[in-house]
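Comment thread on ticket #2218

A.B. wrote:
> Attaching the input chain for the structure job we discussed in standup.
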Amino acid sequence: MPRIRKQIKPHELRSVVLHGVEYVVHWERMTLGSSFFLPTTATVAQVKSAIRAAVKTYGYQVELRTRREYDRFGVRVWRVR
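C.D. wrote:
> Ran it. Output below, let me know if you need it in another format.
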């Protein structure tokens, strides 16, 4: 039996949930070189997994790094392509 894939709508991709906390990302507004910071204790791999569908849908290439900003630990996500 063929597998039916659900069509993902852009507004469904805005919600990123990490360790029970929901973050809203407006992917369609991201320009080349822009970034956002997620204050979280999640690892880069966990964030990458959480945003995978949105990145694939928009065709973006992103770079993620753990950082400490505003006296908070988290992950910054840059759009590089």
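A.B. wrote:
> Thanks. Noting for the ticket: The longest helix spans residues 44-58.
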